[in-house]
């Protein structure tokens, strides 16, 4: 069965996520069509969604003003997977730690924006991730930190703070997996049933 993957194309590494989704699907022998989401009406046709990084206040504002936010909530309520990275995680969380961000309430976690430092403090770290056999080369850029986790499952931590979580069909990451050539986290998020 062919899949339709949506990448919220408000900001962030849209093409990089699209490429990673294609590679992960190809490794599973799955056909996938990637579409960019900039307005309402596209999400309902998607089997899986990527919510990339960028600036969380801008992403939040546009998701709500364009009517995309309720469609993403419905997507998750239907049990369809979402991968939310960096600012995407902030928007997906229940508490963004910033009243300017109207969250989607998809990941039961409190997030601190830019907690790992500014752009100049960016770094790459070998991250042990639950479900992966070998460390993942995580790229942290103005990365948020997950300050508190409710019902979400912690998949990975760095410096004693969670940086990867799963809440139902949503995987939230503080870092940018799309900036590597390692597609294992896209696979983990989008094809969990095929990993067993």
Topology:
Layout: E1 3-8, H1 14-27, E2 32-37, E3 48-51, H2 56-65, H3 69-77, E4 82-85, H4 87-92, E5 93-95, E6 107-112, E7 123-127, E8 136-140, E9 145-149, E10 153-158, E11 161-167, E12 170-173, H5 184-190
Task: Describe the structure in your own words.
This protein is of the alpha/beta class and 196 residues long. It has one domain (3-194): Class I glutamine amidotransferase (GATase) domain (Rossmann fold, 3-Layer(aba) Sandwich). 23% of the residues lie in helices and 31% in strands. The chain has helices spanning 14-27, 56-65, 69-77, 87-92, 184-190, and strands spanning 3-8, 32-37, 48-51, 82-85, 93-95, 107-112, 123-127, 136-140, 145-149, 153-158, 161-167, 170-173. The strands form 3 sheets. The protein has a 7-stranded mixed beta sheet with strand order 2-1-3-4-12-11-10, sandwiched between helices. The longest helix has 14 residues, at 14-27. It starts with a strand and ends in a 6-residue tail after the last helix. The mean pLDDT is 92.
How would you describe this structure in keywords?
Rossmann fold, alpha/beta, about 200 residues
Offer a concise description of the structure:
The protein is of the alpha/beta class and 196 residues long.
Order of helices and strands: EHEEHHEHEEEEEEEEH
Poorly predicted segments: none
Number of strands: 12
Q: Helix- and strand-based class?
A: alpha/beta
From the spread of the alpha carbons, the general shape counts as: globular
Largest sheet: 7 strands, mixed
Number of domains: 1
Overall mean pLDDT: 92
* Name of the CATH class: Alpha Beta
Mind telling me the CATH superfamily name?
A: Class I glutamine amidotransferase (GATase) domain
Please indicate the percent range of residues in DSSP E strands (runs of 2 or more).
25-35%
Give the termini distance in whole angstroms: 19 Å
Quickly give the CATH architecture.
3-Layer(aba) Sandwich
Number of helices: 5
Which fold name fills CATH's third level, the topology? Rossmann fold
Helical content, roughly? 10-25%
Which strands sit side by side, in order, in the main sheet? 2-1-3-4-12-11-10
- Rg measurement, Å: 15 Å
């Amino acid at each position: 069965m062919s899949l339709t993957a949506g990448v919220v194309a408000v900001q962030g590494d849209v093409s990089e996520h699209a490429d990673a989704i294609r590679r992960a699907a190809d490794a599973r022998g799955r056909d996938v069509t990637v579409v960019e989401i900039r307005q309402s009406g596209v999400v309902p046709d998607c089997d899986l969604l990527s919510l990339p990084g960028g600036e969380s206040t801008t992403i939040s504002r546009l998701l709500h003003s364009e009517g995309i936010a309720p469609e993403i909530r419905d997507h998750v309520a239907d049990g369809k997977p979402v991968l939310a990275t960096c600012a995407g995680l902030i928007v997906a969380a229940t508490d963004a730690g910033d009243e300017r961000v109207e969250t989607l309430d998809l990941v039961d976690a409190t997030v601190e924006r830019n907690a790992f430092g500014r752009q100049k403090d960016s770094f790459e770290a070998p991250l042990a991730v639950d479900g992966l056999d070998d460390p993942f080369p995580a790229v942290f850029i103005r990365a948020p930190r997950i300050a508190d986790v409710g019902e979400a499952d912690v998949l990975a931590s760095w410096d004693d703070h969670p940086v990867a979580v799963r809440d139902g069909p949503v995987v939230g990451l503080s870092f940018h997996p799309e900036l590597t050539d390692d597609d294992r986290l896209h696979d983990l998020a989008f094809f969990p049933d095929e990993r067993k």
